[in-house]
Amino acid sequence: MLKGMKAYIDSFELITILVEKSLCYPLKVFYFIDGDIKRKLEFMDLAEDCGEFYKFRMKFDPTIELNKEYIIEDESGNRCFLRSGSIIRSPEFERRYAYEGPLGAEYHKEYTIFRTWSPVAKKLIVELYTPNGKERHNFTYVNQGLWECVVDGDLDGVGYLLFVKVNERLQALLDPYAIASAENEKYNFVINPDKLYKMKYPKPEFSGRYTDAIIYEASIRDFTNQLKSENAGTFLGMVENNPTKGGPTGLDYIASLGITHLQLLPTYDFGGVDDVEKDSRYNWGYNPDQYMVPCGWYSKHPEDPYSRLNELLELIDECHKRGMRVVMDVVFNHVYHWKNFGFEKLVPGYPYRLNFDSTVNNATGCGNTIATERFMNTRFISDTLTFYAKTYNVSGFRFDLMGLLDINSLNQAYKELKKIEPKIIVYGEGWNMDNPLPDEYRPHMYNHKKTPGYAFFNDRYRDYVRGSQWDKSFGYAFGVGKSLYDLNKLVLGSCLDYYKFEEPTQTINYVECHDNYTFYDFGFYALKESDSKVKDAARLALSLILLSIGVPFIHAGQEFFRTKRGVENAYNASDYINAIDYKRRDENISNVNMVRDLISIRKEYDCFRISRKEEVLERIHTLEGATTLHTAGIMCENKDCSLYIFCKNDKSEYKVDLCSSEMIFDGFKKCSVKKDSYVLKEPGVYIIRKDL
């Protein structure tokens, strides 16, 4: 085949041929060859000068089958293979090959069916790794891009790898729909679902109202790497309890706070780590490789086809036992190595958004941006989420860089998830990041009305309370006199006046997460404030989060002033930087207890958990006369009492006159102080109850 000539199917009626200028002659002729049949192609227009080559656009027979091999020949007998081009991104391709049936390995004791999707593959093979050695079996093309291979015999626990021939190359790939893998992604396994761990505990009760949730974000590795047992750094390490003087550890500690939903950093199989030499590399996990396979780095036995699945199942079961539902962190905006991802090898050019110059878009900063709007990508997202909801009893999903996905995919996934778990919660990062998808299809915060089932991380809340890390500005928590009108609207669910959302259920109220500085590090290292000043600010900020209307979100260790030693982006920084420090927890146990107290108050009084804008307007009233440069007050109506909440960010004295009342929270802890007036001195949030 001639290297200087290339041909592509760009639509069902168009072939584009590129020929080096040295090979072009005045009377250029091209032929389409299908086996023994040779047909002359018709020019659509004049050749286009593209620098080192000419581009020819030829009319094409729409009855072509993309899974067959064809050849293009010129008048001199020069030949090249006809490859799939931009046709794979055409509406007609989407319509013809929108396959909705099963994919992956379907196990039966007597046989296993392997299914995969590739309208453009010329050949597909499954290679099995049995006790007797390797076996290869050919797939058969069915229709709509579906290839199928039935292998007789009991393949329980047998390893397998796929091989696909596209663009004249036979390449190995992992099955995108596989649910089990060998260590370090060597190959996949056939799994008998009946042998998986059976959960013992039902999901904890939950109303389904987002504002009743209290979310705690944690990393498996960070919580367990300090263990002195074989479970260090693993799923089951979270279950271990090795009490210190400050109390329990692992899941027992998290549950003791009163958390309703534990959000785990990515638990699927990701790159950037070593499943065997576990301490050789560190990563948070935002490098997706195998979406439906539990992470081998977190498994005690990553080489065992069942161990890592059962370990994750047991961990989730143990969360349920302790009264916590589980939220899974998912990354559908990019993959780790885009050229090696299974779908890219099966259908080159289909999985990703492209720039105007046909290069792979990099809005994510990770080398690629998944084209979630394409049918099979949309389907893959729904399939992955529903798989975890069904198989692992996952109760919610947090979407990384959610604004880079598309509105239709998210709404479709939400619809399917609600059928499985009516009380599912879904939320994510709704940043509006520039990319090829038109703005009206992007699920960013300003399009929140188009995704009513989703909540969004509220960066306005974060930057007002904490300050902006981009310009190193001070937020309200650090004592700055700021607009208390803004504070009022943020505390009341960010849904009134011109604030962000339609309902308070759409705001995730936070000042810290795994990304960027911890709150303590922002204050201490970026703003150069003293330790005591930063801790006062952190205490105030966390108090506001737990008492604001909306969804409170706590980053693991935030309650005891977690530090990552000043590292702003610690995604691969090491255990030394990222590990949970229980000694620091013990040293700051009073602040941990404050969090427990505030969570119990939030659960006791439903005015903190209002889920409708109309109810906010009916039950919450701003105390206009109580507002100063540094202090704001609101009154919340409950069934049998009114709660007066005062937020102050400085150390000046502030007097509250309220006859026949009781202070139930003094800025640091629960209390019971009955007076007619109070003097508030320290920064913090104060709650005074007055019975009706």
TrEMBL record:
InterPro entries: GH, GH13_cat_dom, Glyco_hydro_13_N, Ig-like_fold, Ig_E-set, PulA_N1, PulA_typeI
Domain Glycosyl hydrolase family 13 catalytic: 217-602
Protein name: Pullulanase
SMART domains: Aamy
Organism of derivation: Anaeroplasma bactoclasticum
Domain of life, per lineage: Bacteria
CDD domains with a match to the protein in the record: AmyAc_Pullulanase_LD-like (cd11341), E_set_Pullulanase (cd02860)
GO molecular function: hydrolase activity, hydrolyzing O-glycosyl compounds
GO BP field: carbohydrate metabolic process
Family: Belongs to the glycosyl hydrolase 13 family.
